[in-house]
Amino acid sequence: MKLALGPIQYYWPRDAVFRFYKSIAATPVDIVYLGETVCSRRHELRLADWTNIAEKLRDAGKEVILSTQVLLESKSDVTVLKAITGNGGFLVEANDFGAVRLLADVAPFIAGSQLNIYNAQTLQLMAKLGARRWVVPLETSRQSLACVLEDKVQIETELFAYGRMPLAYSARCFTARHHNLPKDDCQFKCLEYPDGLLMKTRESEHFLTLNGIQTQSALVYNLVREMDAFRELGVGVLRISPQANHTDEIVTLFHAAMNGEKTVSKALADMEALAPDRFCDGYWHGQPGLNQIAA
Fold this sequence. Notes:
Elements (H helix, E strand, L loop, with lengths): L1 E4 L8 H11 L6 E4 L12 H13 L3 E5 L7 H11 L5 E4 L2 H7 L5 E3 L8 H10 L1 E5 L6 H8 L6 E14 L4 H5 L18 E4 L5 E6 L2 E9 L4 H7 L3 E4 L6 H12 L5 H9 L6 E2 L15
Parallel strand pairs: 1-2, 1-11, 2-3, 3-4, 4-5, 5-6, 6-7, 7-11, 10-12
Antiparallel strand pairs: 7-10, 8-9, 9-10
Helix pairs in contact: 9-10
């Protein structure tokens, strides 16, 4: 198995992003996804900056993928999409079917989780169009994934294994609304929340995380205990989603658990002090996502 680092979901300052990927270059992660996938108003980095980071990571021995935006809302978004899919130097993660249309039968690509591939027939179609790897939808259980993989479609499987889960996208910006601001004059409030804006229930339980137009889980999905299941199913890549602090340590712990240098129980215990919230793994077990199922 290989380790992948997903694209940054949050809006971080430019210098922080460059420092972050400089530290990631020294970690044992194999694959790095780059780019803005959430909101086109986030302009700290442009495509040229992402390409610059990509070249440095490639020089450090990483496989680099450029990720496309999930929800396209304007002609300028489509222009950026075409620039990414036509970059000519790096593989692309397609996160909507507009990106698939531009890449199909033209260049190999990664089928992102937001394409919602739930069966072997759709997976076979993606493979025929040129998908080299697919990312399993977040709510997929072990049993459902096993059913999809029974057909032995010739495509690599990647699974979201750590991080706050991106659950939904909307044309509205919830972070701006929280500050009583219109979306078009959001004052880039997302910069104030490097791990998103936590929502609680009336009983003060952590419920969701607001991240601009994206809604995430409040709890952190963590499947580090499932290494044996991944090997049995034939999962090829485990994805870790970046967080504001300790991402490099999380990567190192996953790598140690994957290679038997540390027990999965010890790795999980070590991660507890590094995560922005408590862990959950319900979806993998066919349960509500916020549940934490006993080993």
